[in-house]
Amino acid sequence: MIAAFEGWNDAGDAASAAVEQMGLTWDATPLTELDPEGYYDFQVSRPTVKLVDGVTRTIEWPTTRLSVCRLPDAAHDVILVHGIEPNFRWRAFCDELLKIALEHEVSTVLSLGALLADVPHTRPIQVTGSAHDETTAERLNLTRSRYQGPTGISGVFQDACVQAGIPSVSFWASVPHYVSQAPSPKATLALLHRVEEALDVEVPLGALPQQADEWETEVSQIASEDEEISEYIRSLEEREEADEPLQPASGESIAAEFERYLRRRGPGRGDGPGREGPGKR
């Protein structure tokens, strides 16, 4: 099960866009949705009116929807959870999701999130996270977050999974706070790479790599027109290099990662023609 929630947990829409990308490229089919009554303040997350065939009006309620992806080359199917952070009754909300997870014998839950951080857009997106045990954290080479403070529904749901005995891993992408508007394709791409590593399957990326390059180029161009912003970005780059210097990888680790990459993206398993990345919502 892979979950992402819009709102506080989703800077730049990076996490929700990652789930949308997986649903699109893995041909997800609807599984179920939660009854939104009792979880949402409809004056905050308002229902929307839509036209069907240009004539009939229908109401679409904000809620959390689940879909299933059947991956022929993977050991397990994937359930995608995409919703809005609820306003009320978070423990009951998590209990509903846990019930579905247990009914479908979910073996692992991946929670995706994105947060605003003092990081430069010119460097690889930092992805921190946590795991249910030390072995999994080491296997995924998780950079532990040192954050303490208020949490969102992603953190609460991950804790609920661990308490219920379901292994759970969270990935959080750091989105530059000075360019937080959606979309943030570079952060979405970083999260999808971590999903690939966790599941050891290929996630078709479509146009996302190109979108991420264009995003970085556009932000750099805008920043170059303002000396104060450019200086601030340079200070972030210097601080990041001083705080977390790059560690040279061993030949064995490079070879092992390259083998995993080839296994996920072998001949005939590329993104394929006609794949599109997630657009602006």
UniProtKB/TrEMBL annotation:
Q: What name appears for this protein in its UniProt entry?
A: PAC2 family protein
List the SUPFAM superfamilies. Answer: Cgl1923-like (SSF159659)
Instruction: Give the matching InterPro entries.
Output: Proteasome_assmbl_chaperone_2, PSMG2_sf, Rv2714-like
Q: Which domain of life is it from?
A: Bacteria
Q: Say which species the protein is native to.
A: Nakamurella flava
| Basic and acidic residues biased stretches | 272-281
Annotated stretches, region: Disordered? 237-281
